[in-house]
Amino acid sequence: MWRATPLSAASAPAPPARLLVNIAEIDNQQVRAPPTVVEFSPRPGGVTTIEYPLRPTGEVMVNVKLRRPGQAPVGLSATRIRLVDERGVAIEGVTEFDGSVNFQEVPAGTYSIELDRDQASRLRMRLTAPLSVTIRPDGSINPDVAAEVLFEPRADVEPRPPG
Fold first, then answer.
1. Is the pTM higher than 0.90?
2. Residues with Cβ < 8 Å from 88, sequence gap 6 or more?
3. How far, rounded to the nearest angstrom, does the alpha carbon of residue 116 sit from its chain's CA centroid?
């Protein structure tokens, strides 16, 4: 004959628990954390280990200038810039009125700096030299990157002499 035995409160499943994580007090603020709320199901008498990897990040300011013959360089606004990592993953930004764009919380790694292909093609512009930046995992400050842009003349228009 079978007899049903009620489960004790100690062996009944517990409701999900939520853990709120605050990384504001850590030494290196240049990290990206997973979600700040971690939900798990505790088990009575057990220990739960939760992996919570902090990814090192950094920031870099890119200054895009246009240099015209015989004139001082001027910041180029509304220029779409891309930081592209070794895997081809891009982080995009747009320059401000002074030609600067600040990329924040960029994962550590080496990035090539590129113009947005569609905008560059449409406006016939290109960087004067290849550029790259390395975001170090130690939270150190990166120097600003200076980028210079040239506009190619239209093939169907005769160039005007300077002056």
1. no
2. none
3. 16
